[in-house]
Design brief:
With about 80 residues, the protein is mostly helical. The chain has three helices and no strands.
Length: about 80
């Protein structure tokens, strides 16, 4: 939790720096782009830390594929049927 708080603070600082740079330079200026990438990386780290994905069981994956295949088949049939 402490790491998450310090990461949030780092994001806030990086965001403010980006805002200040963008006021003084064109948005395509290399220094602005570099700061944008720094901010992006911090946000990505925060998201990886906060929103860890839990693996799905294999049975759910099979069900999803079966439902997707059934939907695709029904959509294809309705698309190919002539309208009257």
């Amino acid at each position: 939790m402490i790491h998450q708080k310090s990461l949030q603070q780092s994001i806030d600082v990086a965001r403010q720096q980006l805002y200040n740079l963008a006021k003084h330079y064109d948005l395509s200026h290399p220094i602005v782009l570099k700061q944008s990438m720094v901010l992006d990386e911090l946000i990505n780290k925060y998201n990886r830390l906060t929103y860890k994905r839990s693996p799905r069981p294999l049975s759910n994956n099979n069900e999803i594929h079966e439902e997707s295949a059934a939907y695709t088949l029904s959509y294809s049939k309705s698309y190919l049927m002539p309208t009257t």
